[in-house]
Write a structure and sequence with these properties.
With 211 residues, the protein is an alpha/beta fold. The radius of gyration is 17 Å and the shape is globular. It is built from 10 helices and 7 strands. Helix content is 51%, strand content 15%. Strands 2-1-3-4-5 form a 5-stranded parallel sheet, sandwiched between helices. The protein folds into 2 domains: 134 residues, Rossmann fold; 70 residues, Orthogonal Bundle (Arc Repressor Mutant, subunit A), CATH 1.10.10. Helix 1 links the parallel strand 1 and strand 2. Helix 2 packs parallel to helix 3, helix 3 packs parallel to helix 4 and helix 7 packs across helix 9.
């Protein structure tokens, strides 16, 4: 089954290049392409609840991408991947806290975008290395909590997630399958009582986790 994708970016060149790149892959289907958040939200209101992933820019004219997240979630529940040139800590954290699944720098490239879509479609989260560094800077400020013990393999995977590695990259580095990595991560989330990568990385960076 193809992964349904919607593009929202005011830069026509970005929309066209991302759309064309994804169209070359049989696993993706482009449902729509919009230049503003308002156009996309209007589109959502006219559609049945169709599962899809939206690639959403932050610096949109009118309603910004971050402002749009809350409005989008009121109408439907698509997975949201922020695609932007903005790499400021406050914008990244704000987008993730409002419900974005992933945050990718436009400098990460088309391959990274397609990889992020596939990861998010399988229930994961993706952040390009440049974004991960900003997240690190944010969460090192978080007050330390009670230490949690993780198995060595799970801790190794968490360390690589913190560095910005994707599931595929971690699998290759550890000589494991992506499904095995995903299984370890799900078990880790249950142990840490968290729901996503950002929360897990936060605990790791503030010293709450050890072997």
């Amino acid at each position: 089954m193809k992964i349904n994708v919607v593009l929202v970016d005011d830069d026509a060149i970005v929309r066209d290049s991302v759309g064309q790149f994804l169209s070359f892959h049989d696993s993706f289907a482009i449902l729509g392409s919009f230049s503003t958040a308002e156009e996309y939200i209007d589109y959502l209101r006219k559609q049945d609840a169709l599962k899809h992933i939206v690639i959403l820019d932050i610096g949109l004219p009118g309603m910004s991408g971050i402002e749009a997240i809350s409005e989008i979630k009121k109408i439907a529940n698509p997975e949201i991947i922020m695609l932007t040139t903005y790499e400021e800590e406050d914008k990244i954290v704000s987008a993730l806290c409002k419900g974005a699944s992933s945050y990718i720098s436009k400098r990460a490239g088309l391959k990274a975008i397609s990889e992020a879509i596939e990861i998010v479609n399988k229930g994961g989260s993706y952040m390009s290395p440049a974004i991960a560094r900003e997240i690190v800077q944010h969460f090192v400020k978080v007050e330390k909590k009670t230490t949690i013990v993780l198995p060595e393999r799970q801790l190794e995977i968490l360390e690589k997630l913190t560095e910005g590695s994707s599931y595929q990259q971690i699998a290759e580095e550890l000589n494991l399958s992506v499904e095995t990595i995903r299984s370890h991560i799900k078990k880790m989330y249950r142990t840490l009582c968290v729901n996503n990568k950002v929360e897990a990385v936060s605990l790791y960076l503030n010293g709450s986790i050890k072997k």
